[in-house]
Amino acid sequence: MRAVVLDGPVAAGELRVSRVEVPEPEVGWVRIKVEAFGLNRSEYHLRAGLATGAKFPIIPGIEAAGTVDLAPGGEFSPGQQVVAMMGGMGRQFDGGYAEYTVVPAGSVIPVQTDLDWATLGALPEMLQTAHGSLHTGLGIEPGQTFLVRGGTSSVGVAAAVLAKDFGLTVLSTTRNPDRLDLLRDLGVDHPLLDDGNIAENVRKIVPDGVHAALELVGTNVLPDTLRATAVHGTVCFTGMLSDAWTIPDFYPIGYLPNGVRLTAYGGESSDLPAEAFQRYVDLVAAGRLPIRIDRVFAMEEIAEAHQVMETGQAVGKLVVRIN
């Protein structure tokens, strides 16, 4: 089969498609014929040598969409439409950058849809991370105000549209003034230009600060996001688009504004119940969740796809279609 294999950290332009043996599943595992997969920032971290605990050689890819090819334990039927994500994919064992992938049955979610494969391939990890950040990390409630820091990323786009669907007023940031209208088109109530200091502008709109904020940029802007959040409000740290991951010499009393809560989210496929994923897929198919796909690549264009991801050129999700 065709697959992208990493023998170690490489530049984006060095990624190549190789030919390897089709993997065989054991009982409790499922072999999926991959039709499409989304690109994720964690795969850039793996490829660039920034990930901890990485195993090489490895086929990267923390998600995939396709059909069941073989399930020795009988958990799924051959030909069944499924998505898979997380659970060690692309880190502890070979992931989705391949024509076939073998994953634990617990990482597989069944789905029924007429969406094209590229669209379905964009959804698993993006929706899982957005859903988990909103409901596990932040515990959002209808009627609240919600800030997305890093709003034109794939997770930022998904979080904004899911929050709007749940009844929140959404503020969302971009560093590029040309992308403000794109955020409006996605239903964002208040697009904001991010110059590195947005708390003042947020409080011009919501004087007491937002009820909930999703941090996708990194620790370099986290103090400003905290200042934009209300007393008894919550900030969820989910992403590190800036590759700033840690807080040196963290002193909570000096770092956290009085009464503002800081949490984090980095969950698994189990955090997105199958019925919730199916509902989101149905809403996308009905045109009621405007998920944005920036570009669909062929598998042989994987190097170009990673270059676009690394340089932050995309608004929304990047997807690779296998055939």
TrEMBL record:
UniProt GO MF annotations: NADPH binding; oxidoreductase activity, acting on NAD(P)H
Keyword Transcription regulation annotated: no
SUPFAM superfamilies, sorted: GroES-like (SSF50129), NAD(P)-binding Rossmann-fold domains (SSF51735)
Record-linked Gene3D superfamilies: Medium-chain alcohol dehydrogenases, catalytic domain, NAD(P)-binding Rossmann-like Domain
Domain Enoyl reductase (ER): 13-320
Pfam families in UniProt: ADH_N, ADH_zinc_N_2
Keyword annotations from UniProtKB, A to Z: NADP, Oxidoreductase
Ranges in a coiled coil: none
Protein's UniProt keywords contain Aminoacyl-tRNA synthetase: no
Matching PANTHER family: QUINONE OXIDOREDUCTASE PIG3, QUINONE OXIDOREDUCTASE PIG3-RELATED
The protein's name in its UniProt record: NADPH:quinone reductase-like Zn-dependent oxidoreductase
Originating species: Kribbella voronezhensis
